[in-house]
Structure formats: C-alpha cells, structure tokens
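call fold(seq) -> tokens
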Amino acid sequence: MSRIWASYNRLLETAPLLTKALTSFTGFTAGDALAQTFVEPGDKPYDYLRTLKMGSFGLLVHGTTGHYFYGMLDSKLPGTKPVTVATKVLIDQTLWNPCFGLMFFGYLNAVEGKSMTEYKEKIEQDLQTAVMGSWAVWVPAHTINFGFVPPAQRLLYINTIQIGYNIFLSFLGNKEVEGGDEVKEKDETKKEL
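ret:
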C-alpha cells in the first residue's frame, strides 16, 4: 500500500493535472456505479453510457477545474488558521459550489444532446437542491480539507468523499425534469416551425 501511495505522490509531482483528472474520473465512475447498483430501483438495466458520462465529467471537468480552483485558493489564502479555513470554506460553498452545479448539469445536458430550454428547466428544478445538499456534506468536509490535508492531496481527499456524494449527484443529474415531456414537445414544435 505504501508503494501505491508513493507512486501516486510522484504522479502528483510530475503530472498533477492528469493525476487529479484521473482521480476524479475514478470517483465519479464509482459514485454512479454505486448509485445505479444500490440506490436506484433495481428494475432498470445498468446504464453503462450513463456511467461513462459521469466518469468523463470527472475526467474532463471536475479534476481539471478542481486542480486550478483549489490551487488558486491555496495560493491566495495560504495557511491553516481558523479564519483562513473558514474563508476558504465560505468561498468554496458560495462561489464554487453554484458554478460547479451549473457545469455539472450543463455537461450532462450537452453530452445528452438536450436543448438550452431543458438545461434551464434542470437548473430551475435541481440547482438549489444540489447546492443545499452540498452544504450538508462539504462544509464539514472542507473544514477538514483546508485545515489538515496537504494541498497536493486535496483533490484525492475530495474525490474520496465525492464517491458518496456522487451517488446523490448521479441520482439528481440523471433525474428527469418534471414536465420534461412538455419541454420536449415545445422543442419539437419549434423545430417543425
């Protein structure tokens, strides 16, 4: 186990962006697999494409943006004093959290070929739930993160917790928009005109 940990830390030094992107890929893939297997009704067949979409979000968006965002946050607010930790948590949850939600729902919307109207409906229906759900998990988690976790391991720590949180995100992100059939009918009507 110590060999794996040493290898991971070497990769963080030599290829930090790729390593963090792959870590996020693993976290989002595992979260969706757990959601489909243990949380959602068992009468549906396993959706491998959905897992790929969630994993690719981790790889292409979460890992990369997290690398830059948390790097910037640590450079602007170095240290672990309680006021610094509280400020980082506040910034993360009031600025980054809603941006993350917009990126998450926007990415799924784009890879599923949905319209901007459907994206807007999804945001109106689920962004507040995602943000508030995040507060319950990430305020205490980031208090530990910013207070005790070395900056290079932040995304690994986040992705470890993210596996459980991704069960919630996967469920929320793949939930149909209420009145979704009406939105599709409106879009089809616009196309016909």
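Residues 182-193 have pLDDT under 50 and may be disordered.
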